[in-house]
Amino acid sequence: MSSEPSMEQLLEALAAQVPSQSAEIEGLKTWKQDLERLFQFLGDRRVLIAVMEPGTFAIRYGNAAFCRLAGWEGTPLVTQSNNGWFAEAGISLLELFEDGDVKMAEQLYRRHLLHWVFKQFYQIDLDSLRLLDEPLTASMKNPKHREPKFIEFWFGSEQLKITRIDSKIDEFADVRLKLMPVAELEAWLMQPNQLANLADRLNLDNYLVEGLLLLEGVDVTVQEQIRRLTQLLIDRNSMLRPDKFERIDRCLRSLFHADGTLLLRPDGEQAQLLVAKDDQNLQPIVYSMQSLEASHFFKATAANQVWNVPDLRRECETECDRALRKMGTRSMLLVPLAVKSVTREGCGQRILGVVGLLCDRPNQFNNIDAKHAQELIPAFIAALRQAMQQRFTNIHNIHPAVEWRFAQEAERRSWGLPPETIVFADVHPLYGISDIRGSSDERNRAIQTDLLEQFRLGLAIADAVCQAQTTHLGEQLRLDLLDYIEHLKEKVTVDMEVRAAEYLNERLEVYFDYFVQCGPTVLAAVEAYRSACDNEHNCVYSDRTRYDQMLNLIGTKLQEIWARWQEKMQQIIPHYCDIECTDGIDHMIYVGKSIDPKFSPFHLHSLRYEQLRAICDCARTVFRLQAESQINMELAHLVLVQNTTIDIFHNENTEKMFDVKGTRDIRYELVKKRIEKAVDKDAQERITQSGMLTVVYSTEDEWEEYQQYLRYLSREGWVEPKVQTGMVESLQGVSGLKFARVRILPEPESIIHVSEVTVVND
Fold first, then answer.
1. C-alpha to C-alpha distance for 249 and 144, rounded to whole angstroms
2. What angle do CA 493, 496, 498 make, to 5 degrees?
């Protein structure tokens, strides 16, 4: 090889022989032999070489490695190209690239031209900016593979000859490049996107570019697949989401030439196996950890290294292994995901999971595959930890004020540490409710009205049938309907709603096909009945619709009010707030140092006062709806006071976000459940009254604090100055409660300030 000329010498000799672009194809024959000599020593090596015409990127030569990557090997194109010669093929490099990479290749070519234009016409040397050394990674279409191949390449433009067609045209005349001091010019050129902007200025129509454009590259398909898979694994979305798991599966199959993938995740005494193979549904299979002890998974985790299973048929001892074998799996490459763990016993390894590559052929995976799998372990660990964190925090809709603690616990568990119960100690509870008074009775009245209307329509059908013909059965049916109507007038309960509908269906509606043949009067009565029942409920539902609409309107408005007040209250100090809508709205607030370290008594008292103002605003909203005749329902409002703090914890076995912790806190929960229907010990009436705010408390300290708040509310015009007080009749397991009750005022046109509160003892 020492006698062979160097590549640089060959290029120089070759460039001297290249004809102008206007030359005929035959003119290229004079330098074809030199071109072949240039690449003869490359032979069948891995370096990708191609020679192109500048501007059009038309390929004139491609070595064997380049042809393989393009998918031309063994095709007539290569066979007829005379050992890489493409003089008559007319194929452009850009045709091989994906759309997004075409533009990048064109921009890279422009930057090369910019280098030579600056050097030739402005005597500015851009070597320090290394424009000619800049590589580009592009995806190449390959007809033999579904997935694209990736190439990292450089352009060699040293042998290009550039001539300005019109020397008077200067794209950079306004910049005055030749007058700019060197230091200033270098700083200017190094500004972000400056070179790209200058390259875009080039007027290529004013340049004659002759010679050869060389492409030198390497196949980086595997490296690019690993890079893209790594990016996919560590992005924000959980790898356990079906759509993302499927994308990861496709990438792994392409990289390892596999037929499927799996993920095994330990979960206490069990493990979940997720298999993606043969387009099957991604449904997890649960195995006990004990049943996996002799499996290949345990062997991989025990060795804590990438584990190759050449042939599953030879060693298939557990139920899990046999299930994979039944799916057609013959060979596996298992990747254990372990993190360092520190316990009382010392440092060790904790397994987060196992990723597996599956193939239906034996002996599929080799040492190169194991090396690539090893490279992916950090990304897999990051992805699985993130998935475990999101899974934990997404169990419930975590409130922002306590999200930090759930994130802490999710972080702990993502490292494989044993679960710890999330506890917020010594928090102050603030509970309140705005309850629709008599909603059940109102619902029953709506049911009664609708059923009576439907039965009267049914009676009209029976009357019409009896008038159209003599029928003793029809007369008895008519009398039954009259009896049922009288019964409905007396009382209606929710269960009667179902029984009445069944009665009409079985005793009346079954005859409609016959009744419509009994004359026009009967037909009209049946059509009137059907028209009234033509809705999603298949019955008369007009009054119940109005009731449902009122209930929904009240709930929606109260939720909107509380959402606005919560924005203000969270600005006082972050706190947990849970709002629940049933027949009205109730809220549960927890606040304390364990939720936010900045907590102080002032924050507590501010929240308590804002809670009362928010409830008064809810009441005023109901007053407005009543005044506008949108509802005819009334609401009663209650606040439960407790100065003693409680401990709350997140119970993962219930749907509730928090439960109280400890026997001393149970009393508060009991009061919450029973206080709504509590009665005045003396007057024997409900302590909650329509349009009024009731404050329930236990101690004189609590009353003194809330007496002050009621005075403030009165001064602001929220409530009347007159306050009623009394004792709450003992509840089951709870006694000694007291209450104060005050009427909430509608929103006045002008607020009258009241400085004193008058207390009236009932």
1. 21
2. 130
